[in-house]
Amino acid sequence: MDAFDILEKVRLEKPVVHHLTNWVTIYDCANIVKVFGASPVMAHAKEEVADMAKIASGLVLNIGTLTVDFIDSMIAAAKSANEKGIPVVLDVCGAGATKLRDDMSFKILNSVKIDVIKGNASEVARIAGEQVATKGVDSSDVEKDLIEIAKKLSGERKCCIVITGKEDIVYGNGKGYLISNGCDMMGNVVGTGCMATSVIGAFVSVWDDIVDACAGALVCYEVAAEIANETSKGPGSFKNNLFDSAFLLGRSDVKKRIKIKSL
Amino acid sequence: MDAFDILEKVRLEKPVVHHLTNWVTIYDCANIVKVFGASPVMAHAKEEVADMAKIASGLVLNIGTLTVDFIDSMIAAAKSANEKGIPVVLDVCGAGATKLRDDMSFKILNSVKIDVIKGNASEVARIAGEQVATKGVDSSDVEKDLIEIAKKLSGERKCCIVITGKEDIVYGNGKGYLISNGCDMMGNVVGTGCMATSVIGAFVSVWDDIVDACAGALVCYEVAAEIANETSKGPGSFKNNLFDSAFLLGRSDVKKRIKIKSL
Amino acid sequence: MDAFDILEKVRLEKPVVHHLTNWVTIYDCANIVKVFGASPVMAHAKEEVADMAKIASGLVLNIGTLTVDFIDSMIAAAKSANEKGIPVVLDVCGAGATKLRDDMSFKILNSVKIDVIKGNASEVARIAGEQVATKGVDSSDVEKDLIEIAKKLSGERKCCIVITGKEDIVYGNGKGYLISNGCDMMGNVVGTGCMATSVIGAFVSVWDDIVDACAGALVCYEVAAEIANETSKGPGSFKNNLFDSAFLLGRSDVKKRIKIKSL
Predict the structure, then answer these.
(1) How many domains does chain B have?
(2) CA–CA separation, C116 and C203 (whole Å)
(3) Mean pLDDT, 10 residues at a time, chain A of 263 residues
(4) pTM given for the model
(5) Which end of chain C is less crowded, N or C, counting CB atoms within 10 A of the terminal residue's CB?
(6) Does residue B135 sit at the C interface (CB-CB below 8 Å)?
């Protein structure tokens, strides 16, 4: 898996990545996709989501500020994406926090083909049917063996599972990666998790091996975060620097810093 | 009132602060709460707001981009917060600008218990039944004696009143503060008022004396703004620096700069 | 046409610029208007848009994340603006990408008087009835002679046409400008197009000659972008610097850098 090869393909092909995401980090989702070289488009009207998905190369769904109508639009977009054969990434943001989030996550998963399920430990554990308590949308320590959860859920849902945290787990199609890039400062800024999902959306849009694409996306994004952090005073300058370092990310940066192992 | 003691408690307890806020500054509301050490959660679906309020320690309502449905969700969330006994902060953003804003502000105030009403001079004056003209959502000079308005409204609504401006008035439970921190640059950036409300939401989430918590929130936030301003070239770098300085704010910063007097 | 004279009037009069815009760049639209000295207000509830337009000096409509209900609110706001006689600017963001966007753009144009239609080449070409393919919301090369399209559409719709790109075309009332300011970095950041529209909204709010106001807005905004770019490392620092340079923009900056010619 060469993470930078995938990024180069994103920069070359500039795939349109259609998003139905939350209203908090929607700008950051769009901008991180843009600075990595892809072309974000945000559209959620039920009358146009199917059409928009048809001109896209990938679809990102994020339930952060879901409503019931919005989930219906997500399903319509995903059906269109499924028909076209483009990958669909689902961020189960806040799953476990309320019954609605759980119900709607399962409604999506049971209505359409999802290619990547992404969340933090407690969110993904909840989707896997494990009982965990979520405190808002922040990650929480979960005792369960996360790799086993990823493997089991991947088999059940026939998709790639991404669990982000201090170490990220990517698992699908019988193979997986553990990624140790990133920095603590990411936890002090709203939107770093959502942006990770959007970057995954850009990478899977151009690369056939979806597990490699997810891992490559996290590596590039988190290496950019490490670089950004080195010249930051706090979370404000960090987020700003992150857009710069993602835009400027070079092959040698990734080569020097990548911390990945196979599972 | 030791403002920094309250901030330390926020950083220690990391309270979940549930928001139903506007779509313009929603990111900044979440991020300022995050960098001050609390855990923001934004959720507005009528099916989940009551559940989300139940796992929160405080609720922030901001009518900046209100719709009638959204106000119904706010009321459902606030009822749940009232039942649980957690504080509810209402930013009457833009009150006085349209009949809808006035009507909906009063609908909220007459439907649920609000612990803090916050706005600029003309907004709060309008809620107090004084005739003033609002020019959009910016503050305007109001001739009425604002402290008297705060006292009267506090008595009538049995809550804490926060009026922000060059000097901020905090009044409730028969006591009050006048705060003179902050800087002119805050008036050149969209969202500084909304962020103040969200910081208040974080502070009242961990502190029983709600008047002290409101005053402490404004002191910490505005001292952070003063520090940010010292290294800013304009409103862009200022807002960025504000997230840094809020994150890094230390006891000595507050001690050195605090400008507060009792009313 | 003295671009800086118009900016000075914006700074002096601080016009309220009412927006119904998209959820991606709504903050940036508000903030760029603010840092240029005007007073943005964002309000979309169908019950208040007419009232809000009545206290504004200009109205900006941007269909970036349209829904059918939202378009109804836009039309209600624009009718109110038409009655009051204040200018209405329409950004046909993403026109050509889906049938809904085309239908809704024409619905607006056929329901109310629009004073400025603004988009990139492919968006405006679509509104002019030319067949072009849009790849998401990014600009694309269009073979048609854009100046001819602007002239024709201006005559048909009796309004000013603004087509942004490497060179910007402004045409209306039988006269026009070609503007060559700006920098490539603008294309690497989400929201630069939307912000341009909002700045146009601020400038037309204070200036009778709407073609001059549109051209002046683009000149000032793009000169600010050039200045921002000179001290930027990438798109993150660029956007931040842009808010600073727009706020600090001086007459000599504009005089030194302006690149405009009459059509």
Answers:
(1) 1
(2) 12
(3) 97 98 98 98 98 98 98 98 98 97 98 98 93 52 74 97 96 97 98 98 98 98 98 98 98 98 94
(4) 0.96
(5) C
(6) yes
Which domain range does residue B236 map to?
Answer: 3-262
Q: Please write the tens of the pLDDT for every residue from C195-219.
A: 999 999 999 999 999 999 999 999 9
Q: Would an 8 Å CB–CB cutoff place B27 in contact with chain C?
A: yes
Q: What tokens does A177 get?
A: 């990666």
Instruction: Write down the pLDDT at residue B189.
Output: 98
> Residue B194 CB: number of other CB atoms within 10 A?
25
Strands (E) in C84-173, as ranges, are: 88-91, 116-120, 160-164, 168-172
Per-residue burial over C142-168, b = 16 or more CB atoms within 10 Å of its CB, e = otherwise: beeebbebbbbbbeebebbbbbbbeeb
| Mean pLDDT taken over chain B | 95
Q: Which of A39, A42, A243 sits opposite C235 (nearest CB)?
A: A243
Q: Which of B60, B243, B249 to mutate to test the interface with A (most CBs of A within 10 A)?
A: B243
What pLDDT score was predicted for residue B4? Answer: 98
A231 touching B (Cβ < 8 Å): no
Backbone angles phi, psi at B104, to 5 degrees: -70, -35
Chains with 3 or more CB pairs closer than 8 angstroms to C?
A, B
Subunit contact B35:A138, Cβ cutoff 8 A:
no
Tens-place pLDDT, residues A8-33? 999 999 999 999 999 999 999 999 99
Which ipTM did the prediction report? 0.94
Ranges of chain B whose pLDDT falls below 50: 134-136, 138-143
When computed from its CA atoms, the radius of gyration of chain A, rounded to whole angstroms, is 17
CA end-to-end distance (rounded Å), chain B: 13
C-alpha distance from C66 to closest chain B C-alpha (Å): 14
Q: How far apart are CA B92 and CA B78, in angstroms?
A: 15
> The CATH number of the domain where B203 resides is what?
3.40.1190.20
Is the separation of the CB atoms in C82 and C113 below 8 Å?
A: yes
Single-letter code of the amino acid located at A31: N
Residue of B nearest to A140 (CA): B39
Q: Rounded to whole angstroms, how far apart are CA atoms A249 and A224?
A: 7
Q: Which residues of chain C have pLDDT under 50?
A: 134-136, 138-143
Q: What is the pLDDT of residue B163?
A: 97
pLDDT in tens, A66-109: 999 999 999 999 999 999 999 999 999 999 999 999 999 999 99
Q: Does C39 touch chain B (CB under 8 A)?
A: yes
Contact B23 A23 (CB under 8 A): yes
**CB-count exposure of residue C179 (10 Å: 0-12, 13-18, 19+):** buried
Please give the structure tokens belonging to residue C99. Answer: 């049938």
Name the residue among A55, A58, A91, A37 with its Cα closest to residue A206: A58
